[in-house]
Structures are given as C-alpha cells and as structure tokens.
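We read letters as residues; the fold follows as tokens. A sample entry reads:
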Amino acid sequence: MTAADCLRSADARAAQADPSGVPFAELDPALLRERRTSIKWTRFPADVLPLFVAEMDFAVAPEIRDALTARIEASDIGYLDGPGPLAPAFAGFARDRWGWEVPHDHVHLATDVATGIVESLRVFRPNGGRIALPTPVYPGFFEMLEEVPFEIVEIPLVPSREPEPAPERGPRPEHGSPTANGTAPRLDLAAIERAFADDPGIDAFLLCNPHNPHGLAHRAEDLAALARLAAEHDVFVLSDEIHAPLAFAGEPFTPFAPLAAEAGALAAIATSASKGWNLAGAKCSVIVAADERANAVLRGLPPETVTRASILGLHAGVAAFSEARDWLDRAVAQVERNERLLGELAAEHLPGVRLTRPRAGYLAWLDFREAGLGGDPCSRILEEARVALNDGRHFGAGGAGHVRLNLACAPDTIREAVARISAILPHSSKEPR
C-alpha cells in the first residue's frame, strides 16, 4: 500500500468516527439520551432531535478524560487560589496557534466565560453606562448583562462589500450567504464610530470573536480599526473568544488583545477550553489582560471569582490546551465535513432557506424568512418537525426569522434534521440522501 493509499484509508476511517474514535453509530441521539444528563438530552421529549445548545455529541478527548480521572483518584477536588498550570498551558496554545505571546501573570481565573464577562465589566466600568453589542449575537449576552447596570446599544452587522474568500477545501454553494451578493457579514465600523462619538457615547463594547451565531472570523483590519476607535473614545472592549480554537482550516483567527495593546485601548478577553473541547460543565475559564494597564484592573477582581472556578475544569483545560490539540483538529475537520453536508442538503431539500457558511465554531445560522413557515419558524420546526433549534429572535436585531443549528454531531443526525424540516416546508423535495 502506498503512502497515498494509507492517507486515503485513514481519511475514510476518520469519516466514520468522532474525534475520539467512537463510531458514529454510537452517537445516535437515542443512545446518547440514555447515557447523558445535560440539558441537551433532558429539556425536550425523546422524539425531539436536540440541535439547539452549543454542546458537542462527540466523546471527550482521552487526554482530558485521563486528566480528570487522575485528579479524582488523587482526591484532588479542592478550592483554587489562582490559574497555576492553566496560565502557561493557555499561553502556549495562544503562542503556537495565533502567534500571541501572553504573559502568564496576565491570566486570571473565572468560573466560566459568562462570569468572566460580568466580573470584568464590574471592575473595568464599576458605574455601568452604555454597552454596545454587534447583533444578532449570542443570546446569553443579553441575559448576563442583566446582572450589571448597563444600557444595551445594538449595532447590527452589515454585509461585506467584498466577496467572501473561497474556502480551502471544495466549492462553496452560491446559496451559502444571507446577502444578495454572496458576501459574509462584518462589523459596521461606521456605525460603531458614530455610537462611540455620540452624546452620550459608549462606555464598553462586548465583542464576540469569532462571532456567534454566524461563525464569523473577524478580519484583522476590522479588529484593528475597532481597537483604534476604542482607544480614541475611551471605550473598554471585552472580547469573548470562546470559539477561537475552532477556526476552520486555513482560516486565520485574530485575537483582539494584541491589537488593543498596540492601539492603546483598554481591553481584556474572556475564553475557555469549554467550547473547543466540549467542557462547558467543567466550569473554568480565563480572563486575559491585553496589557499591564488592564492587568492592574483585573488584579482587583473579587477573590470569589477565582475560588468559584472548578479545579477539575482547570486540569481539563490544561490537558486540552497542552495535550489534546490533535483531538481538536479532528473535531474541526469533522465539523467542516458536516458544514459542507448541511450546505449540500439545504440547497437540495430546503427551498427558500439561506445558510450563512461558518468559518469558525460548530454552529450554523439559517434564514427561514422565505421558506414559508411564517414569522416563527423555530416554533414550527419544533412542533411539527420535532427538531429543537435556537430561535433567532433571541439573538437581537436582525435575528428574527432565523434559527441556529448545532453541527457537532454524527452526519446522520444532520441528515435526519434536514429530512424532518424538509417534510414540513410548503415545497419540500425528495428525502435527503
């Protein structure tokens, strides 16, 4: 067998199993519902296909499983007093993947990214004020901001003036954009500048980088421009970079912190291994200061921000960033395969549905406004097709008529979801293959 034959054989095997090598047949939703107890598998009745929450169906990375088992066997389940080994583990990953040199003492702990966002806002802008969000965006932002005294200013994304770059692997269907000219959305820098310069202006900006729900990897020039505007108008920028490890092959991810430091903007980032390695329930995240000025502020975080983080989550994160990078790469490759599958099936079986093609993360954003399901397609899909998706109305301005779908599952789960949805459309076609 030649080297090329071996490579093709390995690719074929990978296409039949998840990143941990578990056969896709074992990721049948009916089987997972019997084994797992998270909200993904308990919120809806057994006949509902759950593709709503950002939780992978894939089995946990063996390196992470072993790290957690070792901590349990050592009865090492106590309180934390700092990031310890997580700081160099994250810094090493950031250096190797993104070229970002992170001083270890700039890394601070929080329970999860939501806690990191709320606590950062409390110390950087203790008097609250006005906070800008690019929308539609992760609904959790609206929920967590109820904990702090901020008025939310929504700044909708806009279509890019330039065509979306071609992918590294295979063609992109022409239907794959929500805009008429086949371009991807991007930050509306003109609107952001107007909001920053307005009276009253903006005190803080909550960036989602990469952007959820679109899977948008923000362009470096857009982020640099945002950093310059923030520095000019004294706006604190907090960047949620939880989906950053999941950038697709050939798609550059640009961390915001180095650009903020260069521009002199006050900024921090909140991130975790939880999305990249499916560890949401492990409860450990990091807040990283963009520069020493921001780090001085983060030193004022309440002690409970650290002690409420999980020691198991910390060691899971260390294993993820240091030892489970190959698992991550296999997960991203599978999500890319599922994304292409969804694009093909949507083009053939979901007439009127327009799909924003993600370039990072494992979430797909679908526009159902012309599909004939009325003004509340998410409810119709749940009630009639028995598929649970996220309702675009909860994502802020621009989200109505859209749904978000989870791609981190077995390919047959994608096929089943499309088949069920296709069956309730007014002009459904033949069954998905």
Summary: The longest helix spans residues 325-349. The two ends are 32 Å apart (CA to CA). The CA atoms of residues 92 and 397 lie 37 Å apart. Residues 3-10, 164-182 have pLDDT under 50 and may be disordered.
